[in-house]
Amino acid sequence: MEKITYFLCESNESSTEFYKKNLNFSKKVLNKLEGNFSNDINDYMNYINKNNMEQLRSKSEYLLEILMIGVFWKEHVNKAISLSKIPRNILIKLSTLREKESIKKIVDINRGLLEYLFLNRRSNDKVKISLENYKKLVNYLKACGDYKEEAKRLEVWISYFFSLNKNKVEKILTSYLEFAKYFEDISQEALGIYTKNVNLFLKNIDKKYKYREDFLFCSRKEVEYHLNMVGAQIMNEAYRKEFLKTKEKRLLLPSCMRIKDEKNCKAIKTEEGYICNSCSKNCNVNKYDKLGKKYNFQVYIIPHESSISVKNKIKYGHIGIIGVACVLNLISGGLKAKNLGFVPQCVFLDYCGCKDHWHDKGIITDINMSYLLYSLGIEEC
Predict the structure, then answer these.
(1) Are 121 and 161 in contact (CB under 8 A)?
(2) Nearby residues of 299 by Cβ (< 8 Å), 6 or more positions away
(3) Which of 46, 85, 282, 323 is most buried, by CB atoms within 10 Å?
(4) What is the mean pLDDT of the chain?
């Protein structure tokens, strides 16, 4: 198997060992976050509740947001402060327009050029830790397009920070950044075995991806892979009880799991996604579709995370979905699914391989069936 960036079967023939390690490591990170920032989170949740800003989420979800703030600040704030208002607003608008399938290709050509020119600039100046620069970071994440859901979550913090004095905000952000640096070190030790090809891949990123719409997405460093691994696990634990109670369950599979390409696959298009038509016995989608028939869950092929949508509002708690995606899409996909009214769970692709982003010819991808059955409440982990 060709290893492109991450590979979850590194220490065994399957990814079972990864799931065990990631579960234990995520618990360690969450406990450390709670130990360091319990008072911060209580103050933040009280502020949200008092001002009726949203229905309160679990404490673990807000702790994950602290980790996101720190990691994104560390990785992107030097680029965020270099982004001026006009290109930022154009990129945010294009990011919205690309959700329309009819003009997506044209929009992506323009986004690719503008992203490389304006979102890839990095200031060499030392960045002052301040609320103003935090706002610039959130706007930068919006302009990128790939962090839409994360940006929505982190934007809520702006109002809270405005309610505090300047020195306290700077102290809070400093502590989040320090934790992000700590997280980068310990995540490398715990999960680095699964992402050791990322740096090798990044050596040729500029040559191969320059002016492409997915340049920034494919340019992410190891720490963001680790953030998504831990984040997905934290979200899975937060939503698991609600998911198991749902009456209807769906498995959303990416098109890179098909054995045939789009032209030759006989899947049937529906409003919810494509349904397998069993055109190939050896296809991974067909394998999980048969599993769905056995255990009473519906399987859909979703070409892209942006394809997840609903015509009518869903009452939260009725439909549970298991979203399957490569690592870098997991936090955003889970947040989007919840915002649409689904109760989400995430299952990692064991490796990436789609020809839209990662491989010229495409590699057929797969998942850990045992973890899928655990997610559905059918087997023990």
Answers:
(1) no
(2) 250, 251, 253, 275, 276, 285, 288, 289, 291, 292
(3) 323
(4) 94
Query: How many CA atoms are closer than 13 Å to the CA of 283, on its beta-carbon side?
Result: 24
Cα-to-chain-centroid distance, residue 111 = 20
Amino acid at 18: F
Give yes or no for residue 305 having a pLDDT over 70: no
With H, G, I as helix, E, B as strand and everything else as coil, classify residue 282: coil
State what percent of residues in the chain have pLDDT above 70.
Answer: 97
Count Cβ atoms within 10 A of the Cβ of residue 270 and give its class: 0-12 exposed, 13-18 middle, 19 or more buried.
exposed
Spatial neighbors of 261 by CB under 8 A, at least 6 apart, are: 362
Residue 312 pLDDT greater than 70, yes or no: no
Helices vs strands, H then E, count in the chain: 14, 6
Q: How far apart are CA 16 and CA 348, in angstroms?
A: 11
Residue 327: HSE in the Cβ half-sphere, 13 Å Cα cutoff: 28
Query: Which residue bears the tokens 């529906």?
Result: 270
List beta partners, residue 315.
none
Give the pairing of strands 268-269 and 274-275.
antiparallel
Find all residues with CB under 8 Å of 220, minimum gap 6, and list them: 75, 328
Average pLDDT over residues 1-11: 90
Model confidence pLDDT, tens digit, residues 236-275: 999 999 999 999 999 999 999 999 988 889 999 998 899 9
Residues 6+ apart with CB under 8 A from 113: 211
Band (pLDDT 50/70/90 cuts) for residue 381 is low
Q: Are 198 and 6 in contact (CB under 8 A)?
A: yes
Give the per-residue pLDDT at 310: 63
Contact 74, 80 (CB under 8 A): no
pTM across the whole model = 0.95
Question: Do the beta carbons of residue 202 and residue 219 sit within 8 Å?
Answer: yes
